[in-house]
């Protein structure tokens, strides 16, 4: 009886925790759905930055590249290297996907570290980096899952699913569970790191607003870039794994 009461109390505690929200949210009603408007707003800003930069980069390419053209060519070469290292010789078609993931996450993370979104007043709620919301990171992780399933199925057809019973059918549940844990680990790693970084900066600014937060903010810029690279690298590794057909 005591064990039952303890279990019920634990479940009630978990339910109460699940209702807690980090920060204040600005909602839009779209039909019967309620969406986090601040995520859409900041995501559109990030997308506009990326599109504007791309247009500027390819608008007037020079034989002798300018500093800006050199920078974008370096970024493209870096993304190609990451894709080739993780996927292998079949990396070509996946460069746009890996590059889009990396650049969107990188600019999103840096927007939260560099731009004080909270100074923009909303009717209610507050703005934050897109990757500061679990919905964004889960969506990116699910896109990655769809990508590596597509990679495996497009190359091997239904025989792709044979990998779940290799090297022995006994591992079937574990192999299936692994595909569920991949998007979970991708999304929660990115969300947790970005949220923690922003919370630390906010706390330090409120306690010691002059000098102490600056090194933490610089460290946040570094870790934000690393998180974008980790996400893109793991996405490439999962796609390469599907193409190879083994773990």
UniProtKB/TrEMBL annotation:
SUPFAM superfamilies: F1F0 ATP synthase subunit A
PROSITE patterns in alphabetical order: ATPASE_A
Pfam families to which the protein is assigned, alphabetical: ATP-synt_A
Alphabetized UniProt keyword annotations: ATP synthesis, CF(0), Hydrogen ion transport, Ion transport, Membrane, Transmembrane, Transmembrane helix, Transport
Topology class, membrane: Multi-pass membrane protein
TM spans (from-to): 35-58, 94-114, 134-153, 190-212
GO cellular component: plastid; proton-transporting ATP synthase complex
Protein's GO biological process: proton motive force-driven ATP synthesis
Record's keyword annotation contains Hydrolase: no
Predominant localisation class: membrane
Any one GO molecular function term: proton transmembrane transporter activity
Top-rank taxon, per record: Eukaryota
Protein's cellular compartments: Membrane; Plastid
Family: Belongs to the ATPase A chain family.
PANTHER family to which the protein is assigned, alphabetical: ATP SYNTHASE SUBUNIT A, CHLOROPLASTIC (PTHR42823)
HAMAP family: ATP_synth_a_bact (MF_01393)
Protein name in the entry: ATP synthase subunit a, chloroplastic
């Amino acid at each position: 009886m005591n064990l039952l009461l303890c279990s019920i109390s634990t479940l009630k505690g978990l339910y109460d925790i699940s209702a807690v929200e980090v920060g204040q949210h600005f909602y839009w009603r779209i039909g019967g759905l309620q969406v986090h408007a601040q995520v859409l707003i900041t995501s559109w800003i990030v997308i506009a930055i990326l599109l504007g930069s791309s247009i500027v980069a390819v608008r007037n390419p020079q034989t002798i590249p300018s500093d800006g053209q050199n920078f974008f060519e370096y970024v493209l070469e870096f993304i190609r290297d990451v894709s080739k290292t993780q996927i292998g010789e079949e990396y070509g078609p996946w460069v746009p996907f890996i590059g889009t993931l990396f650049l969107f996450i990188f600019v999103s993370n840096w927007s939260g570290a560099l731009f004080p979104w909270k100074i923009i007043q909303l009717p209610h709620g507050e703005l934050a980096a897109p990757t500061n919301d679990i919905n964004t990171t889960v969506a990116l992780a699910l896109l990655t899952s769809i990508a590596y399933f597509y990679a495996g199925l497009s190359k091997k057809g239904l025989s792709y699913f044979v990998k779940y019973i290799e090297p022995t059918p006994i591992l079937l549940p574990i192999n299936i569970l692994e595909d569920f844990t991949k998007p979970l680990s991708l999304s929660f790693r990115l969300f947790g790191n970005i949220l923690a970084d922003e919370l630390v900066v906010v706390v330090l600014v409120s306690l010691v607003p002059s000098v102490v937060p600056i090194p933490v903010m610089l460290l946040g810029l570094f870790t934000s870039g690393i998180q974008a690279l980790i996400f893109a690298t793991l996405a490439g590794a999962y796609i390469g794994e599907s193409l190879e057909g083994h773990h």
